[in-house]
Request: fold
Amino acid sequence: MDFAFDARTEELRGRLLAFMEEFVHPAEAVAEEQRAKLASPWDTPQVVEDLKAEARRQGLWNLFFTNQHSLPDEEYGAGLTNLQYAPLAEITGRSPQLAPTALNCAAPDTGNMEVLAQFGSAEQRKRWLEPLLAGEIRSAFAMTEPEVASSDATNIETRIERDGDDYVITGRKWYISGAMNPDCRIFIVMGKTDPDGDDIRRQQSMVLVPRDTPGVEVRRAMRVYGYEDHYHGGHAEVVFDGARVPVANLVGEEGGGFAIAQARLGPGRIHHCMRLIGMAERAIELMCRRAVSRTAFGKPLAAQGQVQAWIADARVAVEQLRLLVLKTAWLMDTVGNKGAHTEIQAIKIATPRTVVDILDQAVQLHGAGGVSQDFPLAELWAAARTLRLADGPDEVHQRSLARRELGRHA
Reply:
């Protein structure tokens, strides 16, 4: 990256790049070795805890918390803008299994912490946000359901019913990221408190449900293209069978769940896109290394016209994406998430799709190695392809963006 950012961002970039080179990348193989010896594949390898401790020592912690969200105070994070955080998140995308967790900047915890900071009560922030900020526990966000098209959040069927001083939650969720991690202690659950309400976007609410609540069953881990995503805490099917929590566990107000979800998704989408650019950069680096080290049909792969075209096109695409993501981050800082709506939709459409193509070409260039566990490409491809569904499928964003564009000419 040749951009010149402000002095603080450049200083953090330098420290983070050094942290990645000295600690994170060497830890990738160590983490795999340690995980193979754990009693449960969902347990955290010791090297991950070591990385977290080192990141805290170096002040590379909770960098995702931007200063635009009217937080209760500024001690929660580094107080960066979205534009300042963008190049840092990109760097962590080069090792998405380890780096975001090491910096306490991993989804879904980041979005959940932002929800608690913006909408949680003082007691909720004390009980759940503070240990999340300290990296002592993990969390999950429970919205997606197997029985409905969850790309339309108004479809969700989980019921949150008032019973005296309690809410009773009944429903089935799946692909609940992070829920298999034994350190996941709290769910933010989205369900309907007013299923017959006239306004379909005021029917939903969010409640905090501790994992150990009677009636909560983490049933199984859902695979993603065959991967269980152990480092992310998996993607679980979770059943809420009459789980009962105090009314004080309501996040915000009744009927505010849809609006909270939208507020949560804006930063989450751009964070994913920032990291995806880092994944693409690593893919290009691996392509180049492979191309100069292998010979086929009498000349190096680097001399093959098709390979040169792949690498050139990948570089052009990444530079285009980066500019669009940085523009989006700047708009979020200056005019807010609503003002950046079109650009947020655009990056969510363009970035995963383009990065999937780059990773696919990198896999092709590596041959059998590209689909193996000896290179990170197959797992990176699966993660990038999944992001064409996560936080809303491409088609939903295309629909929203097109409506806004057409509205200018109505």
